Amino acid sequence: MGGPDAGAAEMLSGARRFRRPFAVPTAVDANAALAMLVAFGGQVGVAGFSMVAAVVTSRVLGPSGRGEVAAAVNVAALAYLLGTLGLSPAVAYFAARGTIAYPVLLGNSLVMGVMLGGVTAIATVGVATVFPAVMGDVPSGLLVLGVLWFPFTFTELYLSYLIIGRQRLFASNALNLVARVVSLLLISLACLAFPHPATVVVLTQGYSVIRLVLNLVYMRRMGFLVRPRVELGAFWTKLGYATRGRGNDVLNFLNMRLDVVLLNVLSTPAAVGVYATAAVISELTWQPSLAVSKVIFPRTAAAPDAGAALATTLASTRVTFALTVLVGILVGAVGWVAIPVVFGDGFAGARSALLVLLPGSALWSLSRVLTAALSGMGLPQIGSVVAGASFALTITGDLLLIPRYGVNGAAVASTVAYAGAGLVAVGVFARTTGTRPRDSVVLRSSDLLAVTSGLGRVAGLLRGRWS
């Protein structure tokens, strides 16, 4: 198996297919529309269960307890992101393209999950011990409870992306939903019996164990658990791809969660609890773009027709942005009324933070879809440029605004950074593909016709599959 240079050459040749001029069809593939519909349904389900879990933990633990959980989980999530080396998208990419043998992808995923997960857990506990300020006023024991699961969590991640790379999107979403339902039930029951932040941290991270078991059962039934092989050359090829998009993964996470970490250091767990509530509600607007990006990435990587793939990306981005704006308006209106009622009066301060976060969240949907398409084209490093610009705005805004304005300052910094990511992504995508910026943003009348036609085709496909 070739090394990093071979992988880079293959990605470059793939990326050139997407540079215009070529004939770009106007119709969107019905199978792609079906996949996006399934993914969107899965994302909505996951978001709904996550919201219920947030309400339960907020009601039981209050702002301070909710803040402790958010801080511990986010620090653990940062360690998780760094430790996985960004290899999960590489697993999906090469599984979709078929340029690395499947038994090798399976074997490497199993070995990497256990080894990298164990090493990362040990390293995280060590760093927290040497630098206790990382956790602020949050007990370090909560972090230990969060990282103990890492060998399972890492393995689950790689196998989940292997399933996605094999275009089993419906199964991936179904497995995710089942795991979320079981996790929510366990969290709810445990919170009532043992109302402590440690309970929530353990069960939140334990979701991955449930998903790992479900993944293995599904893969066995589908014949995907073949005799695995481990090849070092394949690891280097995947790492070469992952390195190109590594900045995108890390910086995007920091754009999403650095505000929580800094708020915990510069303020109080109660402030973190209030802000985390506003953030989790605003992230409901991300569901359309998350669903579309999950489909765009592997389909673009495997696309035989560059023109059709680009047409699908552009139309999907325009429709997704319009839908996200509508969802944002609805979330803002409902959230303003519902937050004190559902979460409690102690979380009323989350209302203003929510309204500040929503405009940036809508624009960030553009970045989600377009950088996923670029990664599928073999250009994950471009996503790092977009995320880097956003991160510069995040860190600057957080350090300037949180000390003075607290929760609302963190919200302003985040919404500016999200908006910056969306606008930069539009410009970079247009330059890379030879299209115009408005091709990704401005909804067209033909899009509405395409959506109507696509829904009809989806209905036909569904009738054909389940009739």
Structural description of this entry:
This protein is an all-alpha fold and 467 residues long. The chain has helices at 4-16, 30-83, 87-97, 102-130, 140-147, 150-165, 169-193, 197-221, 232-266, 269-282, 287-302, 306-342, 350-376, 380-433, 445-466. The chain has one domain (21-466). 83% of the residues lie in helices and 0% in strands. The longest helix is centred in the first third of the chain and has 54 residues, at 30-83. The protein is globular. The model is unreliable at 1-15 and 20-27 (pLDDT under 50).
* SS content category: mainly alpha
* Proportion of strand residues: under 5%
Shape annotation: globular
Discrete helix count = 15
The tally of domains stands at 1
User: Can you write the helix and strand succession as a string?
Assistant: HHHHHHHHHHHHHHH
Share in helix: over 70%
- List segments where confidence is low: pLDDT < 50 over at least 5 consecutive residues: 1-15, 20-27
Give the oligomer, counting copies of the same chain as homo and different chains as hetero: single chain
Radius of gyration, in angstroms, nearest whole number: 21 Å
End-to-end separation in angstroms reads: 44 Å
Main sheet: strands, sense, barrel: none
The count of DSSP E runs of length 2 or more, i.e. the number of strands, is: 0
Mean pLDDT: 80
Summarize it.
The chain has 467 residues and is an all-alpha fold. 83% of the residues lie in helices and 0% in strands.
Map the helices and strands.
Elements: H1 4-16, H2 30-83, H3 87-97, H4 102-130, H5 140-147, H6 150-165, H7 169-193, H8 197-221, H9 232-266, H10 269-282, H11 287-302, H12 306-342, H13 350-376, H14 380-433, H15 445-466
Helix pairs in contact: 1-9, 2-4, 2-5, 2-7, 2-8, 2-9, 2-10, 2-11, 2-15, 3-6, 3-9, 3-11, 4-5, 4-6, 5-8, 6-8, 7-8, 9-10, 9-14, 10-13, 10-14, 11-12, 11-13, 12-13, 13-14
